[in-house]
Amino acid sequence: MKGVWQTMKVDAHQHFWNLARVDYPWLGPEYGPIYRTFEARDLEPHLLEAGIDRTVLVQAMDSYEDTDYMLETAAAHEWIGGVVGWVPLNRPDEAALRLEHYGNNRYFKGVRHLIHEEKDPDWVVQPSVIEGLKLLAERGLTFDVVAVFPNHLKHVPYLAERVPELRMVIDHLAKPPIRNKGWEPWASQLAIAASYPNVYAKLSGLNTAASADWSASELQRYADYAIERFGANRLMFGSDWPVANLNGDYGTVWRETNKMLAGCSKEDAAAILGGTAAAFYRL
């Protein structure tokens, strides 16, 4: 199996949403091209063109309806390797019951919460959420951290210390200030987070933090720094499709990501483009 993991190409972060089936309060007309239903048939041609073997379908709403919809979709498409769903981490008793339910589904790999939509920027470090995260660790499930800089990345070391058995991954490198060519304190905070061996990161969502005419060269400094700090075995590619369509498209993200990895060894590039995600999510 290890050999398969090393050669598999995995998009570790993509979304679907069906506006007729699930309520997404955050998604309104102001989001323009992504304010519509996006489902598997829309993504499949892009995966075939890029040669992607598996994807990880990530929640787009803190609701059971969204999680159930994703699991149903995964069961109908062989190329969806896993689902990152949702349970109410701040209500541990309820979360435990739902995890027992979802634990019977082979596609359910981990949990995410839209932390950046919470009014309290410190939502994720409250004691009840820590208890919820311990439930994930006990079950071998993962936690995707929506760490939108500057509010959330600083919390990752605290979580890593309180729940050291929990494998967690920072989505989108916590959205570094690429458009403004910013660096600190993002870089220092990412380095501290990366010093914990149970913390991983996604090389994803960078195009929507960049300028309108972005290319690999604009993102290279941030990607290189992430590789230096995490290493290829704790870093994974994700398209963040269809959010990526706000500043590009699937093919462009895939092509420019491969350009960013041109300086890596063949083994490291293979890990970032699939092997790490396959192992982390146990696809």
TrEMBL record:
Taxonomy, superkingdom: Bacteria
Coiled-coil boundaries: none
Every Amidohydrolase-related domain range: 10-283
Pfam families, per the entry: Amidohydro_2
N-terminal signal peptide: none
InterPro entries for the chain: Amidohydro-rel, Metal_Hydrolase, Metallo-dep_Lactonases
Gene3D superfamilies assigned to the protein according to its UniProt record, in alphabetical order: Metal-dependent hydrolases (3.20.20.140)
Annotated PANTHER family: AMIDOHYDROLASE (PTHR43569), AMIDOHYDROLASE-RELATED DOMAIN-CONTAINING PROTEIN (PTHR43569:SF2)
Family: Belongs to the metallo-dependent hydrolases superfamily.
Protein's UniProt name: Amidohydrolase family protein
Organism: Cohnella cellulosilytica
